[in-house]
Every structure is written in C-alpha cells, then in structure tokens.
Specification:
single chain, alpha/beta, Rossmann fold, seven-stranded parallel sheet, five-stranded parallel sheet, elongated
Amino acid sequence: MKVLLATGKPFAKQAVEEIQQIIESAGHQFEMLESYTEKSQLLAAVNDANALIVRSDVVDREVMKAAPNLKVVVRAGAGYDNVDLDTATVRDICVMNTPGQNANAVAEMVLGMLIYIQRNLFDGSVGREISGKRLGLYAFGNVAKMVAKIARGFSMTVNAYSPTLSHDDLRKEGEYGVVTVYSNKELFEKSDFISLHMPLFPETRNCVNYDLLSLMPHDGVLINTARKELVVEEDLLRIMDERPLFRYITDMKPERHDAFQARFPKRYFTTPKKSGAQTTEANINAGLAAAGQIVSFFRNGDERFRVNNKL
C-alpha cells in the first residue's frame, strides 16, 4: 500500500524519519509531499495513494475524488474539521485522528501565552502575575486536562465546564484538581482567564459571544488555542473597546486581525501561524501514532480512532 504524508506545515525531521520507518517496516510504500503551496500539488500526489496522513491540510471532496484508491485518512492531531467526513463516509474511507498526542505541547503554549500577555508582551512595563488567579477551562478534553495539571503548579484555581461531560464525570477528574462548574455562564463568571478547548461543530460555532464575555472581570483574558470560529469576533472587539484592560490571545489569526491589531496592539496577540502542536515532541507523538494506526488498519482492520460514520 502507498502511504502519503502530505503536510503544508512540515513535521520535524526526526518525526518524518520515524514515520517512514514504521510505514516501510510494515511493507508499505512511503511518499511525502511537504511544504506544498498549491492544492493542485496535493491533488496530483494523492492520485495513487491508499492512505493519507495530514495535519491541518484540507481533505475535501475534490481531494478524495482525485484519490480513487484512498482507504484511510489520519489527521495527526485531535481536531478533524479539515476533513470532509460526509464524503469520506460515502466513499467508504475511514477517517481517524490521534487524540491526546499533541496535548502537552498545546497546554504549555496556553500557559506561555498567558504569561506573555500578562507581562505586557515583555515590553518592560509593570505586568501582572498568574499565580493565585482563577483559570476557566471551557471543555475538558486531553489538552484542557494537561492545562489544569500545569496551572496547579502556578497555584491557580482551575474551574472546568464541559458541555459533553456529565457533572458526575467532571467530578471524577479529581486528579486534575479542578473545580466543577455547571454552566458556561458560571464558568465565565467565576474565572479571571478563560481558555477554549472545544472542537468546531455546528453547535460550538460562535459559542463565545458578548453575553458570556460580559460576565468576565474587566481585566479578564480570553485564550483560544482551539478554533477561531468559536468566537464572535465583533462581540469580542466590543468587549475590548468597553474594557480597557481586557485581553485576547489566540493561536489562530482572527478574520478581524487588522482591527484587533490596530485598536489593541498591547492587549492582543496572535501567532503568525498555528503553533500549538509545533514541537518536536508533539510531531513525533502524533506522527508515530498516525503511522501506527495506518499499519494496524491495513493489518487487521483496526478502526478504534475512527471519527466518521460507516455506511
């Protein structure tokens, strides 16, 4: 079988080498398309691929149509909204993700960005500490759990609310030292900082709006390492206009980036390109997991991390 690693955002060199070793040791052919700039390059490369490993690369109907032999797509990471699941199901293509493999890298970035914005982008002026503050985690998956563990080392109070976990399930997460709250409103009311950790679904799109943001302290901080579409940007701009100390840090450049940058240059920060999982360790963890899942899929039909429906 031919396994294509197609990444516009390259893996670390060590990760690529180990992915290749896993694929070829199992008797499969390995090919790589790295740092491509045009979709046409991807369409040409998938033509004879049986399996595909991607990161944030878009795998839509057109890509699948160009790959008549494609049987499995693995997203090396947790989120998978870049893959057209409906088309994959119709085509009988198994789509999988690699949950938890990037969690520590993203969690470290959450706290790093929070310190950076609290210290005024390290411009030399008097900043604020995060110790003793209240951190709210909106959703409580793998990344949020790692954030909670790290935040406790900063003596923070960690509140957690998840729309997909029952209150009993949240209370069972005692090892993370979180305080269970019972609604998104309660979470925003009781937190100095809010960190977003929801995947992008129709029900989570635009879920962070003016009403929720207005419940936070006037010097609150919103942290977004999940998806930019979770936030109603006009509402956030309004809050930051109304509250001269409110701040926003994000790992995805907003649609209204120019407005945020022009109006709040010291209270807004975005990474130039999504960077939460951009560590050698996360690359290796997610890449090796993806390669292993493909080998297991072809060896014995293992679909344990499947995220799309079957016909």
